[in-house]
Design goal:
globular; Fructose-1,6-Bisphosphatase, Chain A, domain 1; 8-stranded mixed β-sheet; 17 strands; binds 2,5-anhydro-1,6-di-O-phosphono-D-glucitol; binds manganese (II) ion
Length: 335
């Protein structure tokens, strides 16, 4: 498939649609609409400081975490952008307790299920550090006239697409529909995402390890051993790795995807099941990692994409990055 630098996202989505001769165009249509929603969020994030929409919203999300005004804005933007398109049967967001079947007043019969973390990296919102949006798409599998929980609790192996936007020094959109990973940069002049990183493959050699070492007092000895491994001096295997941790998963992941590295959020005494969310964070990024030649596991050594979710807001531990580094981590954790 041609992946010419400078291709617009519109053209790229059309090219991918041609790989499915029986495609109705609904999937492509849904992706276009989503991309517009992400552009709206990017626009708002860029002027947030001036518009007085930084800071706390005075409410909590389903996880009991304090919501920021931009969390709420990004969430409503995506819901309102996507609810009337006719492409979706339902949505689920990290910020909402329940699934969101498409209301009766909007076109029904959509075939797709959309999940998202509308704004990832909330703690970095008001200090001008990269944040992002993470999404994933499944096919509706139930016979329910609208949708039901079963449509959402599918393992990552069933994904049709996933991706993310990073709102950083530029806005980037990175996605995969199972044919490799494509990265686009938003040209703010024309308001279009332009293919800047075609067919992304993560470097074989990891340069960075990313973990919140402030939690080390609460780690199990195995995790300490694992992190120490990446810090050990061993020229032959390219260690020690450099430490990099932003605290926005999407930005940490994006840097490691392009530069080579491993991101770890293990369980600890405070978060015994891990902190990150399986459905909104781990599965979509695991799909991107694998499509880019990398890997993603939990701290039991399970491949993230094989995990069958039991609940919408399930937490997981996450080790994600280059294949070799993730395999090393698995070996240390399971020995
Ligand atoms: P969110 O802002 O969507 O709630 O996610 C925050 C997540 C993730 O972005 C990041 O990797 C992690 O929390 C950072 O957690 P710590 O502050 O515990 O390191
Ligand atoms: Mn998040
Ligand atoms: Mn979030």
């Amino acid at each position: 498939m041609p992946t010419k630098l400078g291709t617009t996202i519109t053209k790229k989505i059309m090219e991918e649609q041609r790989l499915y001769p029986s495609a109705s165009g609904n999937f492509s249509g849904m992706l276009y609409e989503l991309v517009v929603g992400l552009k709206v969020i990017a626009y708002e994030v860029n002027k947030a400081g001036l518009m007085g929409i930084l800071g706390k919203a005075g409410s909590s999300n389903i996880q009991g975490e304090e919501q920021q005004k931009l969390d709420v804005f990004a969430n409503t933007t995506l819901i309102h952008k996507m609810d009337h398109t006719g492409y979706l049967a339902g949505m689920a967001s990290e910020e909402n307790e329940d699934i969101f079947p498409i209301p009766d007043r909007h076109p029904q019969g959509g075939k797709y299920i959309l999940l998202f973390d509308p704004l990832d990296g909330s703690s970095n919102i008001d200090v001008n550090i990269s944040i992002g949006t993470i999404f994933s798409v499944f096919r509706k599998i139930s016979d329910h006239p609208k949708c039901e929980l079963k449509d959402f609790l599918q393992p990552g192996t069933q994904l049709l697409a996933s991706g993310y936007a990073v709102y950083g020094s530029s806005t980037m959109f990175v996605y995969s529909t199972g044919y490799g990973v494509q990265g686009f940069t938003l040209d703010p002049g024309v308001g279009e995402f332009i293919l800047s990183h075609p067919d992304i493959m993560t470097p074989k050699k990891a340069s960075y390890y990313s973990i919140n070492e402030g939690n080390s007092v609460n780690w199990d000895a195995k995790i300490t051993k694992l992190v120490n491994y990446f810090k050990m001096d061993d020229k032959a295997s390219g260690r020690p790795l450099s430490g990099r941790y932003i605290g926005s998963l999407v930005a940490d992941f994006h840097r490691n995807l392009l530069k080579g590295g491993i991101f770890m959020y293990p369980p600890d005494k405070k978060s015994p099941n891990g902190k990150l969310r399986l459905m909104y964070e781990a599965i979509p990024l695991a799909y991107i990692a694998e499509q880019a030649g990398g890997a993603a596991i939990d701290c039991f050594g399970n491949r993230i994409l094989d995990i069958v979710p039991k609940e919408l807001h399930q937490r997981t531990s996450l080790i994600i990055g280059g294949k070799d580094a993730v395999e090393q981590a698995r070996r240390i954790l399971l020995e």
